[in-house]
């Protein structure tokens, strides 16, 4: 383990302009100090660790060579960008990273002019950067450079290929830097991973060709059309010599690399050499995720976001989970294996999140029946649909916020054909420190209008098991189960696998004054608030209903509520606009019931980062917020 260094250079870098005053020979020291700074900060204030360590040299080289923020750097998957944040005026505040009111977890233009584009989700950098490069041309700014930094498996996403295709046919001077570390969060998968690992070329050849082409342009022998033809020819020749086809051949994109992504002086030199070249360019770097911290280099998946740790020994500080309820994701993972052992048609699908969603359990026990398709949510859905069409029963697990990227695939490739795909939406609701790009706020609202879907949310771990069992029974069609990040409420969570009638909710508690309708685990918080409200006001008698399904609705339950109660409170961990509360209001209106309805949920705005408890409090979704609503004048009047 390296010893912490004295930050003699990093202390004088307040902005990249200060960095650009340094000589190239000083850059390795800056990298060492920056790496130690990240290690020190994240040991006590957890965040995305290994990815940022892997791009320290690239980050320093980029800000040393390019005139940021005038020149644009577009990061892909922003968990690579901690070094970028520290070098761009946020070092003094970096201890607030991911904390309520502090630095945001991912680059955001609202936070800094150096953050050129939002990048919480993968594979968007090439498209966004191409838009900026074209805008620079349109505005007459030929001296503005635009760089897309894509890596951590993002090149396998479909949007990256769409962007590349457009890059090849649109006049631009975009530089695409491929940070090839053989990783996403877990190990990268697919042919692209193997291709990037094997790709070779000659740096000496590229330098010579650059000098010759510059000379030929000056002599008037070479023009733009001839240049594109030569690029195609040159790429083909390199492929022939290397006995390896170049994916960029035929796309009019110059390719450089692969080079050592941890040689900062060489990276800076190459960037200076190629930054003013006409036309699109790809610079391919080989990097090591977790570079400079041995445990992270050895186990990059574990150290993607390791929590607190001892920076000297490398020992992670993991709180004991003894006696605590399990994580919802682990209940999903173990139950999926249990179901797959009973039903040979069951297969698992995840887009690059096997450990994040706990499908790793099935991958270990049944490797031929569980598929990591890479960062490709749309493909994950359609791939599942294809298997379902020919007799399989896919469980497709995608984080709620990432499922937004596959919306059309759900409609066109699954729901329209009534295919029996079970969509398990992990990280539903407010997820905490990852912030607005990762909150699973919208799934109930965006799934609810789609025909043929069954949409459910379990209140606890046993309900999750029963819903998973129900979903794989014959003739259930497309089935959505959403559940949150974190732990459930039941230490003893194992239960028999029993069918839940589709569209049937539960009456959890009788009452006469008013009705509370909840869906999902937030119902447990509501139950505590109900108990407190009744204890503090003995005239209140509050009924509690767990809706379970937002589609189809339990009409018998809602008719009972509509006939009996003048006052209704709905509580959900999702957006109020179009969510469960909206569904209840629509039902009451359509059946001529006239209750007073109040709704608790996520307001119509993007919610920033903080702990889940803090965000629930801000949105009035915690026990205190629900209690306050139950004791409001409208609801108190219900007891009179």
Reported for the largest beta sheet, the result is: 7 strands, mixed
Mean pLDDT across the residues is 90
Low-confidence stretches: 1-5, 192-203
Task: State the distance separating the first and last CA atoms.
Answer: 69 Å
Strand coverage percent: 5-15%
Number of strands: 17
What fraction, in percent, of the residue positions are helical? 25-40%
Strand order of the largest sheet: 7-6-8-9-11-10-15
Structural class: alpha/beta
Shape: globular
Whole-angstrom Rg = 27 Å
Write a short abstract of this structure.
This is 1-deoxy-D-xylulose-5-phosphate synthase. By secondary structure, this protein is α/β, with parallel strands linked by helices.
Spell out the blueprint of helices and strands.
Layout: H1 16-19, H2 27-44, H3 50-54, H4 56-65, E1 72-75, H5 82-90, H6 125-138, E2 146-151, H7 158-169, E3 175-180, H8 191-198, H9 203-219, H10 224-242, E4 254-260, H11 264-274, E5 281-286, H12 294-298, H13 328-342, E6 346-350, H14 360-365, E7 370-372, H15 377-389, E8 393-399, H16 400-403, H17 407-415, E9 422-426, H18 443-447, E10 454-456, H19 461-471, E11 479-482, E12 506-509, E13 514-518, H20 522-536, E14 542-546, E15 549-551, H21 555-564, E16 567-575, H22 580-590, E17 596-602, H23 612-618, H24 623-630, H25 633-636
